[in-house]
Design a protein that fits this description.
By secondary structure, the protein is an alpha/beta fold. About 45% of the residues lie in helices and about 15% in strands. The structure holds adenosine monophosphate and zinc ion (ZN).
Length: about 500
């Protein structure tokens, strides 16, 4: 029997504001859509936190033996700098800045995104569609909305008519708990918005001038699709008109997800999503991490120690451990102290896990291991409560240490449950690698060898022997040791 049949999972649904017992639309299968990155610049650590929360959720659902179709898109067109209101395309702006084609920008930062996720041990989604690959689907949805008089064309652009939507008895604002009258009262009519009937109306299609490289033909002339519509098009195509879970960071609740609800209800006459999940923000210095304010750190800067904020580099498992110590709906502030504490915790867990494999079994058990294992499931079943889970896992660590000190005993069966529960939750569900043994002598030897090779490479460079210096770098990269040249010499990560 599948595991999920014995595990009553509760998930907090933004739509109802409550934790609900989760039941998929079709028994045993789950459709989950998560808004992916806008690939016009490097992902920062805050973005990584949100995607990592959904990676953990995907991993737990898989562990429960659900068949999960996990769709996470790549936004490679149409995400405007002003929430869909101004014809200001992020990709075009960035391509001018970097003197690259917009599609070179897309490629460069998609590769960066995937590299980062690989470094942090993410599972790939089951489908990763791009916005530019779904222009036809978006045009079809716009035509449907125009036919239902929920959208109108204006100077080659098409807008969603929020007032017309509400006149049909629908409620724009239901997901984010906003009231349309207040929304209208609080918006100024900005320049360039005059082609809209109301300032709250949002773009489904934007007219593009001939100078705009990223443009497609449509019944309304050449243009490009609005950001909100791409997620409706791709989620409907791969998961159907109604699916189980839709996720993203809290900041996407309004307007992005609110618009998705309105578009889908307008097109299909019913709600698109059963459970809306929103993850909370990563902060640094108490402020939300964000590219636009400059309060951010790139994942690789943390891993290589190339920053002024942290006193040393931290490896990807420690970062993952740190993120998982907070509940996905709580704010998490990243700090040097918290990272040092997580590193200690991670090392303690790794040591205990490796120790457990060498414990000797007895005829009796001091601890109730089955109860303990249940408590791990209970934590995850309570809206994926990873901090409570980690506290339970440390109970397991305590058992191991006490048994190792010969102050308690464990039977062979219980020892197996103990090890397999730790493996399940730490490695499979939290995605933290414990098996890369923390053998300090061999890792310090390896460090010494790499440092010696870096010195030899420096000599080769001083002698202008570029072939040899490149060979050392490339061969090390082939072994997974990445060298990075900076102002203060060469850093490396293993
Ligand atoms: P974007 O590429 O800007 O659409 O962002 C990708 C994802 O990262 C979205 O789900 C955002 O909600 C999320 N995100 C952005 N900033 C943060 C942050 N500081 N902490 C956590 N998640 C974030
Ligand atoms: Zn989206």
């Amino acid at each position: 029997m599948e595991l999920y049949k014995n595990q009553p999972l509760k998930i907090y649904n933004t739509l109802s504001g409550e934790k609900e017992l989760f039941k998929p639309i079709h028994e045993g299968t789950i459709g989950m859509y998560v808004c992916g990155p806008t690939v016009y610049s490097n992902v920062h650590l805050g973005n990584v936190r949100t995607f990592m929360s959904f990676d953990m959720i995907f991993r737990y659902l898989n562990h429960l033996e659900y068949k999960v179709r996990y769709v996470r898109n790549i936004t490679d067109a149409g995400h405007l700098t002003d929430d869909g209101d101004v014809a200001n395309d992020r990709f075009v702006k960035q391509s001018r800045l970097e003197k690259l084609e917009p599609m070179e920008i897309v490629q460069k930062y998609t590769v960066d995104f995937h590299n980062v996720l690989n470094t942090f041990n993410f599972l790939p989604p089951t489908i990763e569609p791009t916005a530019t690959g779904h222009i036809m689907e978006q045009i079809e949805l716009i035509e449907k909305l125009i036919d239902s008089e929920l959208a109108y064309e204006s100077q080659g652009s098409v807008y969603f008519d929020v007032l017309a939507y509400n006149k049909k008895g629908l409620n724009y604002g239901e997901l984010s708990n906003r009231n349309i009258e207040e929304l209208f009262a609080n918006t100024r009519d900005l320049d360039g918005q005059s082609e809209k009937r109301n300032p709250q109306d949002f773009a489904l299609w934007k007219n593009a001038s001939p100078a705009h490289i990223m443009r497609w033909n449509s019944p309304w002339g050449a243009g490009f699709p609005g950001w909100h519509l791409e997620c409706t098009a791709m989620s409907t195509k791969y998961l159907g008109e109604t699916f189980d879970i839709h996720g993203g960071g809290m900041d996407l609740k309004f307007p992005h997800h609110e618009c998705e609800v309105a578009q889908a209800k307008g097109c299909f006459g019913h709600a698109p999503v059963k459970t809306w999940m929103h993850t909370n923000m990563l902060t640094m210095n108490g402020l939300r991490m964000s590219k636009s304010t400059g309060n951010y750190i790139l994942p690789m800067e943390l891993l290589f120690g190339e920053n002024t904020f942290f006193e040393k580099p931290f490896n990807a498992n420690v970062v993952r451990f740190n993120f998982m110590q907070a509940h996905y709906r709580s704010v998490l502030d990243i700090s040097n102290e918290a990272m040092l504490a997580s590193e200690k915790g991670y090392n303690k867990m790794t040591e205990a896990y490796n120790l457990a494999k060498n414990l000797t079994a007895s005829s009796t058990s001091t601890f109730d291991i089955s109860e303990w294992s249940k408590s791990c499931y209970n934590a995850m079943n309570d809206d994926f409560n990873t901090p409570v889970l980690i506290a339970q896992l440390f109970e397991g660590v305590r058992f191991i240490n006490v048994i190792n000190d010969k102050k308690a005993t464990i039977t062979e069966t219980d020892l197996e449950i103990l090890i397999s529960t730790l493996k399940t939750f730490v490695i499979d569900v939290l995605g933290i690698n414990l098996e890369a043994s923390k053998d300090t002598t061999s890792s310090s030897k390896l460090k010494g060898v790499v440092e010696m090779l870096i010195e030899m490479r420096n000599e080769a460079r001083a002698n202008k022997n570029w072939a040899l210096s490149d060979e050392i770098r490339d061969k090390l990269a082939g072994l997974g040791v990445i060298l990075k040249d900076g102002k203060d010499g060469t850093n490396f990560s293993i």
